[in-house]
Amino acid sequence: MPPISEILPFVLALAAAGVVAGLLAGMFGIGGGAILVPIFFHVFGLLGVPEEVRMHLALGTSLAIIVPTSIRSFMAHRQRGAVDMQLLKGWAIAVPLGTLLAAAVAAKASSTELRLIFAVIALVLAFRMIFNRASWQLGEDLPRNPFKFLVGVAIGILSGLMGIGGGVLNNTFMTLYGRPIHQAVATSSGVGVLISLPGLFGYLWAGWGEAGLPPFSTGYINWLAVALLIPITLLMAPYGARLAHAMSKRQLEMGFGIFLIVVSAQFFLSVYS
C-alpha cells in the first residue's frame, strides 16, 4: 500500500473535483459524467497518471460513480410512475450492447482518439443545448423497431465513449418524438442503469492488467475516486439544485452548452497543441 504522503494529495484533489462536479450536476440536472470526465482527466494528470491510460481511467471511473446514483434515481422515479418501462424493456439488450461495444472500442483506442471522440460529441451536445427549441419535433410518438433498437445501441455507444449516463441523449430522443420532458428525464434514470452497469464491467475488462494505473485501480476503474466522489457529489448536488432554481431553464441550457464547448475546446487543444 502506498504511503499516506502519496495518497493525501490524490484524495484532496479528488475531493475538490467532487465538490465541483456535485454542484454542476445539481445545477444542470444530469448524472455528472460529462462534468466528471474532464475533471478526472485533469486531476489524474496532476497526479502523474500516464497520458496513455488517463482518459480511459476517467471514462471508466465516471461510469462506476453513475451506477448507485442512477439506480437510486430510477427507483425514485419509478415509484412516482413517471418511467416509460416499455421503452426500457425494449432497450434491455440494445443499450447494454452499445455500452459494451464502447468499452471494446476504448480498449483498442488511444488516449488521443478518446479525447477527440469526447470533444466531438460534447460539441454536438453543446449546440443542441444552445440552439434547442421546444418546437423541434420529428414525430408524435416514439418510432418502432428496428429504428428504436438501433437508437438504443447508439445511445449506449456514445454514452460509453463519453463516460456519461445517457440522460442528455435520451432526453433529446424522447422529446423529439413528442414525449413530455418529465417522462424523458425519469426514463433517463433507467437508461443510466442500463449504461453504467455494463459500462463498469466493460471498463474493468478493457483495462485489466494495464500498466501505469494509480493505486486502488482495477482495470480502468479507480475505487478511491469512486468511494470519495459518490458521497461528495450526493452531498453537493442539492446546493447546485438550489442555484438552478434561481436561473431559468434557458439560462441553464445556455450555461451547460457553454461549459461543454469549453471542455471540448480544452480536449481539442490538448490533442493538437
UniProtKB/TrEMBL annotation:
The keyword Transmembrane applies. It is a multi-pass membrane protein. InterPro entries: TM_pro_TauE-like (IPR002781). The keyword Transmembrane helix applies. GO terms for cellular component: plasma membrane. Keywords: Cell membrane, Membrane, Transmembrane, Transmembrane helix. It comes from the Bacteria. Its main location: membrane. It is found in: Cell membrane; Membrane. The chain crosses the membrane at residues 7-24, 30-49, 56-75, 87-107, 114-131, 151-173, 185-208, 220-240, 252-272. Belongs to the 4-toluene sulfonate uptake permease (TSUP) (TC 2.A.102) family. This is Probable membrane transporter protein. The lineage of its organism: Bacteria, Pseudomonadati, Pseudomonadota, Alphaproteobacteria, Hyphomicrobiales.
